[in-house]
Design brief:
- The protein is an alpha/beta fold.
- The chain has helices spanning about 15-30, 55-60, 65-70, 115-125, 175-180, 205, 245-250, 300-320, 330-365, 385-390, 410-425, 465-470, 485-490; strands spanning about 5-15, 35, 50, 80-85, 90-95, 110, 130, 135-140, 145-150, 160-170, 185-200, 215, 220-225, 230-235, 260-275, 280, 285, 290-295, 455-460, 475-480, 495-500, 505-510.
- Strand 4 and strand 5 form a beta hairpin.
- The radius of gyration is 24 Å and the shape is globular.
- It starts with 5 loop residues before the first strand and ends with a strand.
């Protein structure tokens, strides 16, 4: 390909959490990247605020978990509370499982933190080129790569970059997806909303009962940073630009609050709900909101995108470094499209559950019940019953071998049916191929999850024999698996689990190959 001003292995379009995570993951594999972001810097707005336990496991691999946790809220903020107004007592509440307290299924705990605190940690996780204030204006696919036309929004200068592959992580309004003509399925736009960041002294109603979000009849409230700041979000009022946001938030606090909100920032946004019809177009791959826009109730959207990057980047590294063929990239969509669809269904269900709580409250008050009475939640004490969704994703593709060594290439429909069973209730760890490797303790005290990284991992009770017998073209580390865990995983004394770099089990052998 001629006429390009620069060449790179992977061009990442979009500098939000998903694009920055992809950049950090590819840097671990030694893959040259260029990330471009049309905005002039990182997001100054809180936006996505829940980093779930699976994302924290991924950030643990990148050595970022401790830094992210240090800037986050304490675990007791991992709770949702329902109130008539912010200064009323709870009439219902629910813990965010895996956030409010550790879970035995993981060495990590999810955190409540703001996107403007998460992104700087991700930015410093890699030292590869990144250009802010640069937008993509053209995209041409050629047999051996992609030529992107980039425009510096400040100077107007245009450059042409040749990339072997492109990751489109440029959001729900993805320029790349639109240029490729990829359609979406799902409800689409679900309404106009506004988030207002403000300062106010609300400690008397929140200090003793902290929460990540307080759902009220007049919009939702949440703390922004551990050292201060609040946000309110709700449907955008009809008068739009003429709205007195300070007055609106002050009134939303309730007539007994007597607090004036000092507004710092206002952001208008559209709640989207869709999944792209394709996640791959030749050498261009969609990730994050470009591939699937998930309503925010339950904090699933950003985390799903981070898992996209985790799934995709080792596959790109394999193709670019020559130990995998281009067909491996087909397994990205095969594995992640079903996850996107069931995550969207779960997020819509979460929104319905929230509405049910508020409807039950209205019915309770109409019936004359005392205002202080609690109501029975429409779910058990599992925050919207999503731990199975977060940790229980099961992949079926040519990148997963079933018990007899053949590729597990069930249809997407079969995979979704399997996945729905995982997402129904709690997470049940399993060593079946395609599933996330369970968190178990190795002989040296590490978690099995700490054995995974920019390589494949063979877990076996008989490492000496496998080291003698095993030769692969791809990076492989062999780790001893304690006998009690081998039995738990259904392995014989010479069996093994092959774990992919993303922590999902690629194959299980009861004995030697």
């Amino acid at each position: 390909m001629s006429g390009a001003d620069a060449e790179v292995a992977v061009l990442i379009v979009g500098g939000g959490p998903v694009g920055l995570t992809a950049r950090a993951l590819l840097a671990r594999w030694g893959v040259p990247t260029l990330l471009v972001e049309k905005h002039v810097g990182l997001s100054p707005f809180p936006r996505s605020r829940l980093v779930n336990v699976r994302s924290m496991e991924i950030f643990r691999q990148l050595g970022l978990a401790a830094r992210i946790t240090a800037a986050a809220f304490a675990p007791e903020y991992g709770r949702a509370r329902f109130r008539d107004t912010l200064y009323d007592r709870d009439f219902a509440s629910a813990s965010m499982v895996g956030v409010e307290a550790p879970v035995p299924e993981s060495p990590e705990i999810g955190v409540l933190t703001s996107q403007d605190r998460l992104e700087p940690a991700l930015l410093h996780a890699a030292d590869t080129p990144l250009r802010f204030g640069v937008e993509l204006t053209g995209l041409t696919e050629e047999p051996d790569g992609v030529v992107a036309v980039l425009r510096d929004r400040r100077s107007g200068t245009r450059t042409r970059v040749r990339a072997r592959y492109v990751i489109a992580a440029d959001g729900a309004h993805s320029t790349v997806r639109e240029r490729l003509g990829i359609d979406t399925t799902g409800p689409g736009a679900m309404g106009d909303f506004t988030t207002v960041v403000f300062d106010a002294d609300l400690g008397r109603w929140s200090a003793r009962q902290p929460a990540g979000v307080y759902f009220t009849a007049h919009g939702s409230f949440g703390p922004v940073h551990p050292e201060g700041g609040w946000l309110w979000f709700g449907p955008t009022p009809g008068d739009g630009p003429r709205t007195d946001w300070s007055g609106l938030v002050s009134r939303a606090l309730g007539p007994g609050a007597d607090v004036r909100a000092d507004v710092r920032r206002v952001q208008h946004w559209v709640m989207h709900a869709f999944v792209a019809e394709r996640f791959r177009h030749g050498r261009i791959l969609l990730a994050g909101d470009a591939a699937h826009a998930i309503p925010p109730i339950g904090g699933l959207g950003m985390n799903t995108g981070i898992a996209d990057a985790h799934n995709l980047c080792w596959k790109l590294a394999g193709v670019l470094r020559g130990w995998a063929g281009p067909g491996l990239l087909d397994t990205y969509a095969a594995e992640r499209v079903p996850v996107a669809h069931r995550t969207l269904r779960q997020a819509v269900a979460n929104a319905r559950l929230m509405v049910q709580v508020q409807e039950r409250r209205r019915d309770q008050l109409r019936s004359g019940a005392p205002a202080g009475d609690r109501i029975e939640l429409p779910w058990s004490e599992r925050y919207f019953a999503q731990l199975g969704l977060v940790l229980g994703a099961a992949y079926r593709s040519a990148a997963v071998l079933d018990g007899d060594g053949s590729a597990d290439t069930a249809t997407d429909t079969d995979a979704e049916a399997d996945a729905d069973a995982d997402a129904d209730t709690d997470y049940v760890p399993t060593p079946r191929p395609g599933h996330r490797m369970p968190h178990l303790r190795l002989a040296d005290g590490r978690s099995t999850l700490d054995a995974f990284g920019a390589w494949f991992t063979l877990l076996t009770p008989d490492p000496a024999r496998w080291e003698h017998e095993t030769a692969t073209p791809w990076p492989l580390r062999i780790e001893p698996l304690p006998a009690e865990h081998a039995a738990l995983c259904g392995l014989g004394p010479h069996g093994a689990l092959l774990v992919r770099p993303d922590g999902h089990i690629g194959a299980l052998r009861h004995g030697m190959p």
